[in-house]
Specification:
The chain is an alpha/beta fold and 493 residues long. It has 14 helices and 23 strands. The protein folds into three domains: 211 residues, 3-Layer(bba) Sandwich (FAD/NAD(P)-binding domain); 130 residues, FAD/NAD(P)-binding domain; 111 residues, Enolase-like, domain 1 (2-Layer Sandwich). Bound molecules: 1,4-dihydronicotinamide adenine dinucleotide.
């Protein structure tokens, strides 16, 4: 194969793209990975990773505040936000460099530039132009589009990247301000994670949410615990708010809202409310990044930017071109993009032939989700209401952190796990957890669900003591009323 010819080109080196490139190389394919910005995409540069690095600083502050209770006197502490940002930037840089090193170890060619599919088909191969410092064109047998997403921008919100910001702005390596008052529009995953971080850093946070609940996709009982914690941290959540406008006043920001219940044609005469702050973060979802990459020219079907794919194979409407991750408008999670990378690479290489790859299908039955607030939230499988609506006879077990010895030792007594199981088979249908390490705990339930296990498969597995993982064990025992560390009633025969 000549220098500019490849088995596979991947446009976009976010979690989906960089993962696909390495996986393809592991099958023995010659791979071109095209990225217009930095390796790692949103997750690594402007999303999951920098947020978690800041979260680590925020969490440390929370622990310091509790130090007295643990017998540790810390008379004074001070946040250096610029140091926290520096640390965050370094974490990101090291991981970005790490991905470059991994790709190079697999001999994948990295092209820095904007990739566009300019023609071709599966018979003759596709041509991709790359515009960057050096413009070039490559020829490839198959293409995977993994161009991701960007923060949704609503004109009425006047996002000026000065005072009215997106998560990209707040996570910019040069953002060094902790506002005294932070307004957050959208109390979804991004909004709640930033509210938590900035409240720990000392900001007074006000959230404006359109729906009647924050993170409305989670179990209501879990959301209640978070709301209570947010309240105790001084975070105000105003739900059912229709944000009509946001303005940069020069000295701060001003948002005007009316009740979300007001019908559209009555908004003009509706009673309005005014909210003021120093900065505003708009986190109301994400738009798909698919402009100018050749969709129209090739006839690749899309809807409002989301590239349409066969949900099983991830092939687009054009044979030989696949799409994965956020750009498809599916579940916007890095780990879902990883899964789609594996599936699309196997299908691409199986269709070329000559690689040890077999056609395969996506499987979204078990997708764990985590929200990095304090306390953490982890969930997987069905929510209770959904399981009931689907006709399952649902058994539910709950177990609180306060009854767990390790949690008590750690001073992490807030929260609980709830486990759902099918009444007849006792197979696990889902679980939600809020509390210490909830984001880690949910992995055990995910594994069990992926393999169709029952609550007994978990309860019969010895869990080491004392650990937080015992919460999963006791939660499963609670489904059948057999949790040891929960008060019970004797059975009389
Ligand atoms: P989201 O969909 O989670 O939340 C957006 C929120 O904004 C919703 O509650 C929605 O009702 C509200 N909203 C929408 N329009 C509004 C308006 N005009 N006025 C007021 N509220 C409005 O989206 P978000 O938080 O932007 O996150 C984007 C994606 O990134 C999500 O798919 C999320 O799952 C993912 N993500 C995942 C993380 C994780 O796994 N820990 C962390 C951060 C983001």
């Amino acid at each position: 194969m000549s220098e500019n010819q490849y088995d596979l080109a991947i446009i976009g080196a976010g979690p989906g793209g960089y993962h696909a490139a390495i996986r393809a190389a592991q099958y023995g394919a010659k791979v071109a990975l095209i990225e217009k910005d930095k390796l790692g995409g949103t997750c690594l540069n402007r999303g999951c990773i920098p947020t978690k690095a800041l979260y680590a600083s925020a969490h440390l502050i929370e622990k310091i505040r509790e130090a007295d209770e643990f017998g540790v006197k810390i008379s004074d502490y001070k946040l250096s936000f610029s140091k926290a940002v520096e640390r965050k930037n370094q974490v990101v840089q090291e991981l970005v460099d790490g991905i470059g090193a991994l790709e190079r170890s697999w001999k994948n060619d990295i092209y820095n530039g904007f990739g566009k599919i300019i023609g071709g088909d599966t018979e003759v191969g596709f041509e991709i132009s790359i515009e960057g410092e050096e413009n070039t064109t490559i020829k490839v047998k198959r293409v995977i589009i993994a161009t991701g997403s960007y923060p949704a921008l609503i004109p009425a919100f006047n996002i000026d990247h000065e005072r009215i910001l997106t998560s990209d702005d707040i996570l910019d390596p040069n953002f060094k301000t902790v506002p005294e008052r932070l307004m957050i529009i959208g109390a979804g995953v991004i909004g709640c994670e930033f509210a938590n971080i900035f409240a720990s850093f000392g900001s007074r946070v006000t959230m404006l949410e359109y729906l009647s609940s924050p993170i409305a996709t989670e179990e209501p009982m879990i959301v209640k615990v978070l709301q209570k914690k947010f309240q105790s941290n001084g975070i105000e959540i105003h739900t059912s708010q229709n944000v009509l406008s946001v303005e940069n006043t020069g000295k701060g920001v001003k948002a005007t809202t009316c009740s979300a219940d007001v019908p559209r044609d009555q908004i003009e005469s509706a009673e309005t409310q005014l909210f003021e702050a120093d900065l505003c973060l708009v986190s109301i979802g994400r738009a798909k990044e698919s402009k100018n990459i050749g969709l129209e020219e090739l006839g690749i079907k899309s809807e409002r930017g989301a590239i349409k794919v066969n949900p099983d194979t991830l092939e687009t409407s054009v044979s030989g071109i696949y799409a994965i991750g956020d750009v498809t408008g599916g579940i916007m999670l890095a780990h879902v993009a990883y899964h789609e990378a594996d599936v699309s690479v196997a299908n691409c290489l199986a269709s070329i032939g000559g690689f040890p790859a077999e056609k395969t299908k996506t499987d979204y039955t078990v997708v764990p989700a985590t929200i990095f607030t304090s306390p953490n939230i982890g969930s997987v499988g069905y929510r209770r209401k959904v399981a009931k609506n689907l006709g399952f006879d649902v058994l539910m077990g709950q177990f609180p952190y306060q009854s767990l010895s390790k949690a008590k030792c750690m001073g992490e007594e807030e929260g609980f796990i709830m486990v759902l199981a099918d009444k007849t088979t006792h197979k696990i249908l889902g679980a939600s957890c809020i509390g210490a390490e909830a984001s880690e705990l949910i992995a055990e339930i995910a594994l069990a669900m992926q393999h169709g296990l029952t609550i007994h498969d978990i309860t019969e597995t010895i869990h080491s003591h004392p650990t937080i993982s015992e919460l999963v064990l006791e939660g499963c025992e609670a489904v059948v009323g057999k949790s040891i560390h929960k008060k019970g009633r004797p059975i009389h025969h």
